[in-house]
Amino acid sequence: LHYIPSVHVTRGGSRLDVRAGYDMDFQEYLRNSDESSFNHDAFARVKFTGEKLKVKVRDQFRSATAYATSEISERRAYIRNDFQPEVGYRLGPKVTAAALYQNYLLDYRESGLDENSYIINDLGGRFYYHATPKLDLYVEGTGGITDYYRSDAYDHQGFRVLGGAVGKLTTKVLLDVQSGFKAQFYDDDGINTFNNWVGQAVLQYRLAPKIDISLRGKRDKEESAYRNAVWYSVNMLGVNLLYRFSPHILFEIDGSLQRNRYSRTTTEGTLTKKRRDYIYTAGARIKWRPIRYLDFSVGYGVRDRASNFDNVFDYVDHSLDSAVSYQL
Q1: Residue by residue, what is the 3-state secondary structure of the chain?
Q2: Rounded distance, CA 86 to CA 48, Å?
Q3: CA-to-CA distance for 222 and 230, rounded, in angstroms?
Q4: Residues 122, 120: Cα–Cα separation, whole Å
Q5: Mind listing the pLDDT tens digit of every residue in the chain (328 residues)?
Q6: Cα–Cα distance measured from residue 300 to residue 159, given in angstroms and rounded to the nearest whole number
C-alpha cells in the first residue's frame, strides 16, 4: 500500500511563474512490515519571461527506498537530484537561442551498489524556431561527462545532437517529441561504446470533450547497476487514457511495454549470455476533487518482467496506493 500526502505551491504572473511541491510517500508492506519505508519527493520550477530574455530553472529531488524496477529486482535506497537551468534570448520574431545545462546525481545508499553512484554534467545549446504562437521546433547539441565518483570504473564522455518539436499542433493535439544521435565513449577501452539513434515522444489527443488519450515512446541508453553490464539500451511504448466522469472525478488507465538489452555478456548459474528483459506494466487510478486545491486518489498497478535468464530475473509486482494532495 502507498500513502502519498503532498503539498504544492503555485504562484503565476505575466513575467514570473513559480511552482514548488513536496510529496511524502509511505510504502506499507502487508506481508513483510519491516520492508515498509518513507520516500520523499520535492520539486521547484521557476520561469521568468522578459521582452527578449527567458529563464527556466527546474530541480527535482527524490530520496527513496524503491521496490523492484525495470532492471533491479531487490529493493534499494538511493538519492536522486536533477537540476536543469535554461537561459534563452530572442534573436528575432521567430528565433530564440538558448544555453542548456544539466547536473544529474544518482547516489546509492547501500554498500552493495554504492560503486554505481554517478554524476552527469551536460552543457550545450538549443535553437528554437517559433513556428506558431503555440508550437516550437528546435535543434540542440550537448556534450558532457559521467563521473562514477566512488569507483571511477565506468567514467565516460559523450555528446548528442537532437531535433524536436514541443507545443500544441492543433486544438486537439499536444506533442513533445525529439530524436537524434547519441554517442558515449568510456575511459576503459574494454567497455562497449554506445553510438546510436535515440528519441522520445509524448503525443496527447483530445478524443472527445471528456476523453484524452496519450501515446509515449522512448529509445535510449541507460546506466546499469547490474553486475558489470555497465549500460543497457531501452525501447519503450506506452499508452494512457483519461476519462472525466465529472468536473470532480477522473478515471485513468495506462499500460506499457519495454525491452532492455544489455551491452555485455554475463553469467548466471550455468547460463552465459547477454541479458534481455521484457517489462509489461498496467494500472488504473481514480481521482476525486471535492473542493478546489484538494485531491484524493486511489490506484492499482501491476509490473511483470520476463528475462532470457530463465527464472533468475522474472517477477510480478502488484501495488495498491492511495494519495491525498493539497495545492496552495
Answers
A1: CEEEEEEEEEECCCCEEEEEEEEEEEECCCCCHHHCEEEEEEEEEEEEECCCEEEEEEEEEEEEEECCCCCCCCCEEEEEEEEEEEEEEECCCCEEEEEEEEEEEEEECCCCCHHHCEEEEEEEEEEEEEEECCEEEEEEEEEEEEECCCCCCCCEEEEEEEEEEEEECCCCEEEEEEEEEEEEEECCCCCCCEEEEEEEEEEEEEEECCEEEEEEEEEEEEECCCCCCCEEEEEEEEEEEEEEEECCEEEEEEEEEEEEEEEEEEEECCEEEEEEEEEEEEEEEEEEEEECCEEEEEEEEEEEEEECCCCCCCEEEEEEEEEEEEEC
A2: 11
A3: 9
A4: 6
A5: 656 678 888 888 889 999 999 988 877 766 666 667 888 999 999 999 999 999 999 999 999 887 666 677 667 889 999 999 999 999 999 999 999 999 999 999 877 788 899 999 999 999 999 999 999 999 999 999 999 999 888 999 999 999 999 999 999 999 999 999 999 999 999 899 999 999 999 999 999 999 999 999 999 999 998 877 899 999 999 999 999 999 999 999 999 999 999 998 888 888 899 999 999 999 999 999 998 878 889 999 999 999 998 778 888 888 888 877 776 6
A6: 39
- Cell matching residue 210: 471528456
